[in-house]
Amino acid sequence: MSSLLNVESFFDLTENQYNYKKDLIIIAGPTCVGKSFLAMKLAKKIDGVLINADSVQVYKDLKLLSARPSEEDMRQIPHFLYGYVKSQKNYSIADWLQQLSKVILDVEKIKKTAILVGGSGLYLNAVINGLAPIPRLREEIKKESLLKLNKLELIVLRN
């Protein structure tokens, strides 16, 4: 695969001086096209860090469902927002965006360029365009709504 992916052919490293204060590089695409591999090569060239933008890779216990970076990769290049949420937790894109904001500030403090890597279109779109301002529901409203839905389901099943 390394012969197919040449970082210099994707990124002009001689003309562009990537800067941690103004640049967020996004490497996106479908599953299994080499996004992580390309991001690792680029991070080594520009002293960057990788930030996960894959909705499955945020989960600690779902390693087999995605191409999670190896421990060796994580030792070579700093990785953020990989495998930090238990799958039982109700976790949303709004939660991820809050974490992303904190990580980007932390990355800026260590003077590294952030490389956002992933294939979750919703995550990437939210980074670029933001989210609609929808307030969070209180837990009691969620529970009440679920009870009503369960009752409706029972009514429909009986008919």
Briefly, what is this?
This protein is α/β, with parallel strands linked by helices and 159 residues long.
Question: What would you say this structure looks like, in words?
Answer:
With 159 residues, the protein is α/β, with parallel strands linked by helices. It has a single domain (7-158), classed as P-loop containing nucleotide triphosphate hydrolases (Rossmann fold, 3-Layer(aba) Sandwich), CATH 3.40.50.300. 43% of the residues lie in helices and 11% in strands. It is built from 6 helices and 4 strands, in the order αβαβαβαβαα. The chain has helices at 7-10, 35-46, 71-76, 93-109, 121-129, 139-158, and strands at 24-28, 48-52, 79-80, 113-118. The protein has a 4-stranded parallel β-sheet with strand order 1-4-2-3, sandwiched between helices. α3 (71-76) links the parallel β2 and β3. The longest helix has 20 residues, at 139-158.
List keywords for this structure.
11% strand, 159 residues, 43% helix, four-stranded parallel sheet, alpha/beta
What does the secondary structure layout of this molecule look like, with pairings?
Layout: H1 7-10, E1 24-28, H2 35-46, E2 48-52, H3 71-76, E3 79-80, H4 93-109, E4 113-118, H5 121-129, H6 139-158
Parallel strand pairs: 1-4, 2-3, 2-4
Q: CATH superfamily, called what? A: P-loop containing nucleotide triphosphate hydrolases
Structural category: alpha/beta
CATH topology: Rossmann fold
Write out the strand line-up for the largest beta sheet, numbering strands in chain order.
Answer: 1-4-2-3
- Count of folded domains: 1
Shape: elongated
